[in-house]
């Protein structure tokens, strides 16, 4: 009987510190200065919104694809290691999440700067004629975001790969299956739910990323979150900023329910709901 009430503190916390402030902010999109849809009309009619939306999706898709390839390979390699070594690597991967986001982005500014080790090395190798800054472009943004988000791809993918029965792979080998066939017909399909979970996490986090595009990107990499920051801090137009936020939340909700209909909630939370 007591266990039935355990969910109340958690629900109260979510309502008080998440639903109420986010809901109050989103309501500004239709209540500022009064009941109106002018913010959404201005949003969809403006060129800046569509350009920034295209930038947001292009960067998010690129980051997700790169993380999917690298994360799957890393997860596959960790799954082949002995348990102590695998656990040690997983701990190191998780620990990177604890490092300050600003610290990691400023570190990339040092590495990609004109006097950074990357530019200096490229000049030494004869690829560049002189030292050149590699900052303030889309490649720098993608690189910084992949560095931050790759753990969110590795962990669920590793869990899915680790759950595959090794006897299945040995059976494929004994039946004469080529490595490419084992990968395409057994390994990849069975690890797909974990890979899809990682893609969902990385893509949705990429949609709302602000710090990395703002620090490492330029004007050509303006995203929706950067436009929201301008509207709030410079234009003081909370209603218009809330309209941007509503679009991002709507996109995230569509992705979430699409994932739910395909894989179910048990894959996302690690248990059957």
UniProtKB/TrEMBL annotation:
Classification via InterPro entries: MetI-like (IPR000515), MetI-like_sf (IPR035906)
GO BP term (any one): transmembrane transport
Bilayer disposition of the protein: Multi-pass membrane protein
Subcellular location: Cell membrane
Main location: membrane
Domain ABC transmembrane type-1: 53-259
Keyword Cell membrane: yes
GO cellular component, one term: plasma membrane
Record's keyword terms, sorted: Cell membrane, Membrane, Transmembrane, Transmembrane helix, Transport
Transmembrane segments annotated in the record for this chain: 48-73, 85-103, 109-128, 140-161, 195-216, 236-259
Family designation: Belongs to the binding-protein-dependent transport system permease family. CysTW subfamily.
UniProt-recorded name of the protein: ABC transmembrane type-1 domain-containing protein
């Amino acid at each position: 009987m007591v266990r039935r009430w355990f969910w109340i503190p958690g629900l109260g916390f979510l309502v008080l510190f998440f639903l109420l402030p986010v809901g109050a902010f989103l309501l500004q999109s239709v209540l500022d200065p009064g009941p109106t849809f002018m913010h959404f009309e201005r949003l969809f009619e403006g060129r800046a919104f569509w350009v920034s939306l295209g930038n947001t999706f292009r960067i998010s898709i690129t980051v997700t694809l790169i993380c999917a390839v690298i994360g799957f390979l890393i997860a596959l390699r960790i799954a082949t290691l002995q348990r102590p070594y695998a656990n040690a690597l997983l701990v190191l991967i998780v620990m990177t999440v604890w490092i300050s986001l600003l610290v990691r982005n400023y570190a990339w500014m040092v590495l990609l700067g004109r006097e950074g080790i990357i530019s200096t090395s490229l000049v030494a190798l004869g690829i560049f004629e002189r030292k050149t800054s590699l900052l303030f472009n889309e490649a720098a943004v993608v690189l910084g975001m992949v560095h931050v988000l790759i753990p969110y791809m590795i962990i669920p993918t590793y869990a899915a790969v680790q759950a595959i029965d090794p006897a299945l792979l040995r059976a494929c080998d004994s039946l004469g299956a080529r490595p490419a066939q084992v990968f395409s017909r057994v390994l990849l399909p069975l690890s797909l739910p974990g890979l899809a979970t990682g893609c969902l996490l990385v893509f949705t986090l990429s949609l709302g990323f602000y710090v990395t595009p703002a620090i490492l990107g330029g004007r050509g990499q303006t995203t929706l979150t950067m436009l929201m920051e301008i509207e709030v801090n410079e234009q003081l137009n909370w209603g218009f900023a809330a309209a941007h936020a509503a679009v991002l939340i709507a996109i995230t909700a569509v992705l979430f329910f699409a994932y739910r209909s395909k894989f179910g909630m048990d894959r996302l939370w690690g248990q059957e709901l």
